[in-house]
Amino acid sequence: MTAQRLFIGGEWVEPDRGHYEIVDPAAERLVGLAPEASREQVYAAAEAARDAFPAWSRTPPEERARILDAAAGIVQRNAREYADLARSESGATAAVARGMQVAVAAARFRRYARGALEPVEQPLPPQINAAGPFGRAGVIGALAVRRPVGVVTCITSYNNPWANPAGKVAPALAMGNTVVVKPAPQDPLSAYRMAEALAEAGVPPGVVNVVTGSGSDVGEAAVDSPHVDMVSFTGSTAVGQRIGEVCGRALKRQLMELGGKGAALVFDDADLDAATAAIGTTFSFYSGQICTAPTRVIVQRAVHDRLVGKLAAYLARLRIGDPAEPDTVVGPVISAAHRDRVESYVELGRAEGARLVAGGERPAFERGFYCAPTLFADCASGMRIVREEIFGPVVVVVPFDTEEEGVALANDSDYGLLDYVWSGDVARAFRVAGQLRSGGVGVNTVGRNMEAPFGGFRKSGVGRDVGSYALHAYSETQALVWGA
């Protein structure tokens, strides 16, 4: 088995600190050996990005677009190989690895190939100035122009080792930035395949660099390097707070997509079958390891028992097993440590007095980090299982009576990433959506519009990306003013 090397300045570099093992969460077998970078190597990667920035930022947008489009084609060409790797190192089901990881990464490179060609200038109304201390009377014209930030450190999450890095790297490159990618330690090998695809597509040396490590020190170096101008991070709120402290001291730009505890507000006139299918994605999609999941169901009391029954029946039909098998719906979580964490929350829910409706017992497999999809009812807003992000296939149900109470319960959270409203009264659904303190609200859907801004309120993050909003996130605004 080949040991992976770091990618720094367009070269494949042996790591100073050796390698660590990447383990398949389903089979508990060795997938590969990931490199352990030293702090000096991380700094070298940032310096390489700094050296490459002047030329890349002046590269014509058409050339940046061509390279990103070519990278998308290479990812598509190698999609089967890449999806197999993603499944092996992340534990995602085969369908998710193909359709939601690798395919989405290719789509994001194509989207930001177009994005590189979007206008960066915004004309502003002219201003007529009377004669005064600054000169003669005249007309002052102005443009607001978006410029690249510089060197961007992209720290990505383990739940999607393709789409998450692509969603940062592609818009950053489209805007003329250079990047240092620091993928999650659990499944970093896909990021190196992405770097290979970008290099083959023609990205110049130093524009994209990838460094990894099993501990926090590599990420810390990638944040505090004096060559880094911006940090884009997806992960836990606790780590985001630490990154924010470091960035704040140096006044570095930040883009933070952090934790979530999405409220699914279900009214008594809702289509309960549709709501059940949508909420049920928490049990299956990435095995609940997704910050946008509707994990906190707040349901009007008149339909509470019916919805709980439907969710329990839905859960019972889900097939748990080997993610390589085509009919598997629920795969493992990322690691034994995370499985233990999820199970500790299940025990906490019991201790807090919540009613365990379904699940709760570890599936009987000889190997693999599997958690049973679990449903709790009779929950109260003060319970930790209701307030804290579990990041696993666990759904909690809280009843409410009035619309005002439902909104208050939904907003009673430290988080605010994505919430959801189900109601047959569309006017009410949109009225309620406007009162929810979250970065996005799904009305009778958990679907996403990939041009809509994405980000959170409160402890769910800072800034917005996706679509053209990502191009704005990875740019600074410069004012150009002239006299006429």
Ends apart, CA distance between termini: 67 Å
CATH class descriptor of the largest domain: Alpha Beta
Mean pLDDT: 94
- The CATH homologous superfamily of the largest domain: Aldehyde Dehydrogenase, Chain A, domain 1
Discrete helix count: 16
Helix content estimate: 25-40%
Cα gyration radius (Å): 24 Å
Shape: globular
Largest sheet entry: 7 strands, mixed
Strand content: 15-25%
Low-confidence stretches: none
Give the total of domains: 2
Total strand count, please?
Answer: 20
The CATH architecture assignment of the largest domain turns out to be 3-Layer(aba) Sandwich
Which structural category do the helix and sheet elements fall into? alpha/beta
Strand ordering within the main sheet: 14-15-16-13-12-17-18
3D architecture notes:
With 484 residues, this protein is an alpha/beta fold. It has two domains: 6-258 and 460-483, Aldehyde Dehydrogenase, Chain A, domain 1, CATH 3.40.605.10; 263-453, Aldehyde Dehydrogenase, Chain A, domain 2 (3-Layer(aba) Sandwich). It has 16 helices and 20 strands. The protein has helices spanning 39-58, 61-77, 79-90, 94-115, 163-174, 189-201, 217-224, 237-250, 272-279, 281-284, 304-316, 336-352, 384-387, 403-411, 426-433, 468-473; strands at residues 6-8, 11-13, 19-23, 30-35, 121-129, 138-148, 151-155, 178-182, 208-210, 230-234, 253-257, 263-266, 296-300, 355-358, 374-377, 394-400, 418-422, 440-443, 461-462, 475-483. The strands form five sheets. Strands 14-15-16-13-12-17-18 form a seven-stranded mixed sheet, sandwiched between helices. It is globular and about 75 Å long. The mean pLDDT is 94.
